[in-house]
Amino acid sequence: MAGLAGCGPAPELEPGDELTGSEQQALTEGAPLTTHDASCLKLQDQNTWSTYASYMTPVGPAVGLSGVLQDLNRAGPVLTSSSHPPAVGYKGGFRWNDGDMATTDWVPQALTAGVSGSTNVAIVSWHYAPTTAPEKGVRISVADISDMSVSAVNYRHVLLVRPTSSGNFTVVGEHGGGLAWYGNYLYMADTSDGMRVFDLTQIREVDTSTTCDTAIGKVGSVWCAYGYKYVLPQVSAYVVPSTLTSPCRPKFSFLGKDTRGTTDVVLSGEYCNNTGTSCPYDGSTPGLGGRLYRWPVDSSTYRLKTVNGAVTPERAYIMNEPNVQGVAPIMTTTSTTSYWLSSTRYSGALFKVSTSASRTAYLSGSSQWARMPEGMHATGSGTNLWTVTEGYNDSTNPATGGRVVFFVDQAAVD
């Protein structure tokens, strides 16, 4: 079936040829990444950076990420030889405390990592699962992973909020399926519209009295966040213009961070399967048309690179894999044509993919990977590959499907 120009797989080009259009094609699961023409796609900076920052000025003290790291209030036991899930190259990890392992209200989704001062930090997002009011949106867990030889990893939950007016805010009603951390900015996937950006220096302390257990925003003379002590405010967003429609208009299911090459990028990708969740571009093979985009980051500001307020992906691929939940770059090479994909296909899998070879698969059913893996982060040194799982069949046993955060040796799965 004929596709839209600028919205399909890029055909193989001979020297001197130009890319003028494309056709939707049958796709093959496990095939190499297919170069995709994304010239139709732009993101627009909503440019609320100064407005949203000013809205939050009256709200509590700004403690920033460094302040939260000094006030971690939960302990997640470090995994042992008998409690960790099976994974090729496994090196270490932790589970959440008993309450977070068992709760049905919140579900882990994305993971990113970085350094704050001298502290190695993992940040995990959770989406609020109940469909009844009130909507609590997305929270993140800030975890100190500096020393994985200790008995437990300390962490704290922080609620994401969006400023609405001077001195007021509301929840961020999104799935929270992807995170990427650059500088002071935390990027989060906004499934239908693009990416939201949060400023880690603007984490603010709010009230934790019983008044706030069921309230959000300003209540009388205090600010509330459903009982959470800290809020992380949105500062801006990069959105797909409403004029862009399917198949050019993508989904933003997950994010990743890639520091290979000459320009750092935020990676974004689409979740799709062959049952009930299709992708805007699925060719003639539903479930395999999820696309992966590379969005350039300005190294001086850590914001996306814009021209006249618009951001263009520097490259895009069709992944040829279903049920993709996360992405990480293969850091042992400077080439930007190879990745790890985290998938809930086969109840859990890690796929090594590239433009030049069919995938290599590490499957949970073969005791090679954890069940229900989600977001990932590859350390820039090429040593560790981190991932988080959302939990399998309500298990609280970390060895057999309970929620965990763990890392493996990159070389073992390369």
Q: What can you see in these coordinates?
A:
The chain has 414 residues and is mainly beta. It has a single domain, classed as Tachylectin-2, Chain A. Helix content is 5%, strand content 38%. It has helices at 49-56, 64-69, 98-102, and strands spanning 34-35, 43-45, 74-77, 90-95, 106-116, 119-128, 138-144, 152-165, 168-171, 179-182, 185-190, 194-199, 204-205, 216-219, 222-225, 230-239, 254-258, 265-269, 291-296, 310-311, 315-318, 324-329, 338-343, 349-354, 360-363, 373-378, 384-389, 404-409. Strands 2, 3, 5, 6, 7, 8, 9, 10, 11, 12, 13, 16 and 20 form a 13-stranded mixed beta sheet that branches. Strands 1-21-19-18-17 form a 5-stranded antiparallel beta sheet, with no helix packed on it. A 4-stranded antiparallel beta sheet has the order 4-28-27-26, with no helix packed on it. The longest helix is centred in the N-terminal third of the chain and has 8 residues, at 49-56. It is globular, with a radius of gyration of 21 Å. Mean pLDDT is 93; it is low at 1-5 and 11-22.
